[in-house]
Amino acid sequence: RNPRVAPCEMVWWFSKSSEQYRIAGELELIGAEADGERRTARKQQWGNLSDKAREQFYWHRPGEAYSGEPTVPAAGRGADGKVLEPPPEFLLMLLHPRRVHYLRLTDNYAQVDAAAALAADGEGDVEGSWSAARVNP
Predict the structure, then answer these.
(1) Band (64; pLDDT cuts 50, 70, 90)
(2) Are 4 and 28 in contact (CB under 8 A)?
(3) What are phi and psi of 59, to 5 degrees?
(4) Is the pLDDT confidence value at 32 over 70?
(5) Is 103 helix (H, G, I), strand (E, B) or coil?
(6) Which H or E run contains 46?
(7) Residue 66 backbone zone (phi > 0: left; psi -120 to 50: alpha; other: beta)
(8) Which neighbouring-strand residues pair with 93?
(9) For position 35, what pLDDT does the model report?
(10) How far apart are CA 4 and CA 76, in angstroms?
(11) Residue 45: in which H helix or E strand, if any?
């Protein structure tokens, strides 16, 4: 098992429409050791952060005793004005969904969508196919 992959459930609540999504699956952490598309995606997300958000990654460790103001590269940029490479502490999180539970409280409608599981021998449902079923809220 990859130590950078773990079971996870994320919840999104939309208060104006009283809707909730619970998305369960595998959470993959993409760090400095990533290559290919994952490395590119991590770097892109780092660049998409606001300047102030990038600066926070250079602060002292949170929760430890105060040790004075940190030396922080302005806007997370180098002397040439270009965005610095992401520090090792910056991880991109990718949630690979396997199950989505939708709940709408305005009319108590609930539905579960689930990804088809492949058998160990690769036989069975087609990868990428999903089932949907209405369930009790």
Answers:
(1) very high
(2) yes
(3) -70, 170
(4) yes
(5) strand
(6) helix 36-48
(7) beta
(8) 29
(9) 92
(10) 26
(11) helix 36-48
Sheet holding 19-30, edge to edge: 5-14, 19-30, 92-104, 109-115, 130-135
Q: How many other CB atoms are found less than 10 A from the CB of residue 96?
A: 12
Nearest one of 102, 100, 92, 93 to 130, comparing CA atoms: 100
Q: What is the pTM of this model?
A: 0.74
Q: Tell me which residue has tokens 């969904």.
A: 97
130-135 and 109-115 as β-strands: parallel, antiparallel, unpaired? Answer: antiparallel
Say which residues have a Cβ less than 8 Å from residue 10's Cβ, sequence separation at least 6. Answer: 22, 23, 24, 95
Residue type at 25? Answer: G
Q: Which two tokens stand for residue 105?
A: 């409280």
Q: What is the mean pLDDT of residues 18-31?
A: 96
Average pLDDT over residues 98-107: 97
